[in-house]
Amino acid sequence: MRFLLLAILLLCPVACSADDWGAIQYLVGNWTGDGGGVPGQGVGGFSFEPDLHGKILVRKSRAEYPATKDRPAFEHDDLMIVYRELDERAEGAPRAIFFDNEDHVIRYDITMFGDRIIFTSEPVHDNPQYRLTYTRVTADSLRIKFEIALPGKGFATYLDASAKRAK
Q1: Residue 58 in contact with residue 80, Cβ under 8 Å?
Q2: Measured in Å, how far apart are the chain's first and last C-alpha atoms?
Q3: For residue range 89-145, what is the model confidence (pLDDT) as tens digits?
Q4: Mean predicted confidence (pLDDT) in 137-166
Q5: What value does the mean pLDDT of the chain take?
Q6: How far apart are alpha carbons 163 and 61 in whole angstroms?
Q7: d(CA 132, CA 118)
Q8: Burial of 136 (C-beta count, 10 Å sphere; 0-12/13-18/19+)
Q9: Where are the domains of the chain?
Q10: What is the 3-state secondary structure of 57-94?
Q11: Cα separation of 106 and 147, whole Å?
Q12: Contact partners, residue 33, CB within 8 Å, separation at least 6
């Protein structure tokens, strides 16, 4: 009985506090996906998992792209940390910071509209702006759209993919 109580106490901070992420909670878990667009058809997956007793969500992602006549096969790995910003802008507003194996570091504001969760990068002078949108399709599937806006231009789709919750 003592071991059961200890297990519940150890697991509860992660499980109990993960529920306060609102619409983002839908993304928690493991996902497999495939998609296309530039730079080519790829396969991969990602996970969103609570960490630090539910204070942050950690997304780890990996995509593999096959060789084409123009380039060799390659892999893309990234890590994103979602957290709540506690400052004068908006108490508890969700934000994220992203890192990848291509040396990108992107800071995102997060907005939620119905079934869409939108990560929009902060504008940085003379640099592209990025937008990552997750749209819930069903309880276990979603669409993912990644867009880039070059300086002085509007957003253009770079990647359009789908993902299913891993069982």
Answers
A1: yes
A2: 31
A3: 556 789 999 999 999 999 999 999 889 999 999 888 889 999 999 999 999 999 999
A4: 93
A5: 83
A6: 12
A7: 6
A8: middle
A9: 2-165
A10: EEEEEEEEECCCCCCCCEEEEEEEEEEEECCCCCCCEE
A11: 13
A12: 43, 44, 45, 46, 144, 161, 162, 163, 164
> How many CB atoms are located within 10 Å of the residue 5 CB?
9
In the block, residue with structure tokens 């529920």: 19
**pLDDT score at 110:** 95
Structure tokens at 39: 């730079």
Residue 34 pLDDT class (50, 70, 90 cuts): low
156, 131, 134, 13: CA torsion to nearest 10? 170
Fold of 2-165: Lipocalin (2.40.128)
Q: Give the CA distances from residue 88 to residues 47, 92, 95, in Å, rounded to whole numbers and listed in that order.
A: 31, 10, 14
